[in-house]
Write a structure and sequence with these properties.
single chain, 301 residues, mainly alpha, 13 helices
Length: 301
């Protein structure tokens, strides 16, 4: 059930985030609303969980008791899984189409997670998984390499591809941290939300209010603001964050990211059906390679 929920929300996330790029809000505006929406649900829940430990004197929370995890763990997980991932991913949708995000965001996630797990957890890469990762790398090159070759033609698609890949690296690092520290799914999601809320929300709100950075929060329709806060915050963070962490604790970080094999294909189909994006041959080939690589990596040795 956790896997099904995660796949559905991640697929919708790619299509909706790309569609949002053509509306009123800017990337950091969407990230701001994402954090506010998640905070409205998770932070009161986290504060309630910390009441009993605080009374007993055994509390190990941090960030004004909004996070149920220690300061260092909250900062590390929150930086990669809460703040950097959101900022990089939303920024990428303003340059590259959802078709590219389908391949480079969830599609490349197993590759970066496996490499980071090898470095941090000393988790070996089996022959089956290694072959699958090579297929994923080839698919990423087919998609991202084409846009990089056009960088000098004046197009900005390559910027979005780089941002998508960077976001996948950040989420892969977060997945490894969850497994290394054996973090509880709900508490980890609360922690990354608390970190982003305490560090990013007040600084961005102040900078936007003073006019130091561009923002469309004041001029966007209220319906759009509410929708982004509910879907990006409650859905993409609170619900899928918990279900994804449940997958990591049960399957491990590498197999968990490989279970999301349906996301690239489903989101690509959604981009064609909903956003009317063209299916170019290199993207189709890259999508096929990434999907085959993920499925092959799921095979037991």
């Amino acid at each position: 059930m956790a896997a099904v929920t995660t796949v559905l929300i991640w697929t919708s996330f790619i299509v909706i985030a790309r569609a949002s790029a053509s509306h009123n809000l800017l990337p950091l505006d969407i990230g701001f609303l994402r954090i506010l929406g998640a905070s409205s649900v998770l932070l009161p829940w986290g504060w309630w969980l910390m009441r009993a430990p605080k009374k007993a004197g055994t509390a190990k929370g941090s960030f004004f008791s909004l996070s149920p995890l220690p300061w260092r763990t909250t900062a590390a997980a929150g930086l990669f899984g809460g703040l950097l991932y959101a900022v990089l991913a939303y920024s990428g949708f303003f340059y590259a189409p959802a078709m590219h995000a389908s391949v480079l965001l969830p599609g490349s996630l197993p590759l970066w997670t496996a490499l980071l797990a090898l470095l941090v957890l000393k988790d070996p890469i089996s022959k089956n998984r290694g072959f699958g990762l090579m297929c994923i790398l080839a698919g990423d090159v087919l998609v991202g390499g084409a846009s990089l070759l056009k960088a000098f033609d004046g197009t900005d698609v390559w910027k979005g591809d780089v941002l998508f890949m960077s976001a996948a690296v950040c989420w892969g690092m977060y997945s490894v941290l969850v497994r290394r520290d054996s973090l509880n799914a709900i508490r980890a999601t609360m922690a990354i939300t608390a970190f982003a809320c305490v560090t990013f929300v007040p600084s961005y709100a102040g900078a936007a209010w003073m006019g130091w950075i561009p923002s469309h929060l004041a001029t966007a329709p209220w319906k759009e603001l509410w929708f982004q806060a509910l879907f990006q915050g409650v859905g993409s963070v609170a619900i899928s964050g918990i279900t994804f962490n449940m997958m990591i604790r049960h399957y491990g970080p590498v197999r968990s990211t490989m279970i999301t094999a349906l996301v690239p294909g489903l989101s690509a189909l959604g981009a064609v059906a909903v956003l009317n994006e063209p299916m170019h041959l290199n993207v189709l080939a890259g999508l096929a390679l990434v999907t085959c690589g993920i499925l092959f990596g799921l095979r037991k040795t």
